[in-house]
């Protein structure tokens, strides 16, 4: 079913159209209105304030406040966030809508482009036939951003291939122009308030800082204030960025007036260092977004909070009890790996080295690099060669079975390189529809995962989800529901008890418990089924495609 296609405005989006909308909307506003018209919010891609937000244009979004949180200079780290009141484990510190976001091209047809709802029967855009929406309301809400791509996808056909990063940068540039338009409307509205309102005692006069183009995702930090590491990038990264910029010029000339090359390099660097991957309950990549306020949170290998996603919004929840003055800290990387590997990744992607307590003490490194006891001691260079091989294998999968047998004779099951190889092997078993093999590897992985990852880790909950659904697919419903309940216990803290993921998971568990109850009355004998391929909900892990070994098993 095709959704009705909004009529595309003629002319340049950023000049004549912007000026006309600004003038028309200003003329229609009453003299005492400080709020922004709904039409303007749609034109800029800006979501309306929720019912809990003040309706005034001088809202909390413009005063730079998040209740219980403050910005401060973190020693040795620069800007950061800390709490001004106590938070318990599982408590929500704050949530933030994205400044800008984009659904991954690979997920089109599975999720709504606007609200990131996953469901069957999505309606496609009537013009490009590539974007999918829940309904006309979602399509209308997304039009300000989708219009950047809709005509171009038709014009270029199969040759339309900008990266997700380039698509996100294009949306950020469009959003900035929209907020400039909103600023002009606000100033006109405010001038009318000054003229018509005789009692000025309750009117807050906006200063220059407040009048910067600020939206609800910039309560603490403006988009242009994001950290850039352009000066630290090597030639390889710079060449990739130049390729992306060329694609931006090629695929987005109609609706965007692009800044100069240096400014684009800076923006791409800001996105690379501050972008967030939006993930589903099994940590599969759905899309990419920028959350300026969330980007203020510094890294630690002993994080105090975790970031999860509800639709397109980021939610920050405590995974440790926090007292006033404690810094808000997240992990930028996978914490499974030993200290040297973690810091290599941090230097490569974020240009710093972590000095948290775990990095100083390396308390878990011994378990993470554990070697089996041998009758003949293994030479250090043999171990070094195996570690080097394992690191390379993470990037390029080769000769799995033979390698596992060889490494398994030396590395303990808790050794992180052995764990990664077994995770790869689990993916191969799923691809080959070998359910028994997938369970065998998964059971070996789960116990070390639970010990080596910090409490309430999404890596652990996602593994319980995968295992639970594999068990259920094999009619091992008791084991399946047990694993799903363990996942749910973690997710209730990480996502919040009312998150849609939890609602779906409770329903899934309830259905399986009914099956278990029925089986106690009558237990038919069935052959063990093979793993089934599905693309319509349930376990996305079973999707059989050439991307399984790449997407499912990335570090």
From TrEMBL:
It is an enzyme of class 2 (transferase). One of its GO terms (molecular function) is histone H3K4 trimethyltransferase activity. Residues 67-333 form the SET domain. Residues 1-27, 45-55 have a biased composition (Basic and acidic residues). The keyword Metal-binding applies. GO terms for cellular component: nucleus. It catalyses: L-lysyl(4)-[histone H3] + 3 S-adenosyl-L-methionine = N(6),N(6),N(6)-trimethyl-L-lysyl(4)-[histone H3] + 3 S-adenosyl-L-homocysteine + 3 H(+). GO terms for biological process: methylation. Residues 1-56 are annotated as: Disordered. Keywords: Metal-binding, Methyltransferase, S-adenosyl-L-methionine, Transferase, Zinc, Zinc-finger. Residues 112-150 form the MYND-type domain. Its EC number is 2.1.1.354. The keyword DNA repair does not apply. InterPro entries: H3K4_H4K5_MeTrfase, SET_dom, SET_dom_sf, TPR-like_helical_dom_sf, Znf_MYND. PANTHER family: HISTONE-LYSINE N-METHYLTRANSFERASE SMYD, N-LYSINE METHYLTRANSFERASE SMYD2-B. This is [histone H3]-lysine(4) N-trimethyltransferase. It comes from Gambusia affinis (Western mosquitofish).
